């Protein structure tokens, strides 16, 4: 996967992971991938719903050592 930018929002509670993700994805070109690292358990549902509603594609998400990792392709 060709990641353009990595966004670290570990230790930040809702709604800030979404706010920071929106800001970061605006800087990308259509088709580029943003990787997000979060620890807020609510981020799983929030980022999934946000990507869908914003016309972006959630490519993958995993949990690794209590860190949620997401890969979102800008739509």
TrEMBL record:
Protein name: TusA-related sulfurtransferase
Domain of life: Bacteria
InterPro entries: TusA-like, TusA-like_sf
Annotated family: Belongs to the sulfur carrier protein TusA family.
One of the Pfam families matching this protein, by short name: TusA
Domain UPF0033: 7-31
SUPFAM superfamilies: SirA-like (SSF64307)
Organism: Cytobacillus purgationiresistens
């Amino acid at each position: 996967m060709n990641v353009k930018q990595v966004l670290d929002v570990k230790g930040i509670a809702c709604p800030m992971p979404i706010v920071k993700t929106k800001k970061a994805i605006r800087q990308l070109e259509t088709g580029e991938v943003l990787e997000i690292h979060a620890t807020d358990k609510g981020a799983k549902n929030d980022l999934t719903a946000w990507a869908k509603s914003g016309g972006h594609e959630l490519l993958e998400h995993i949990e690794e050592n209590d860190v949620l990792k997401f890969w979102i392709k800008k739509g």
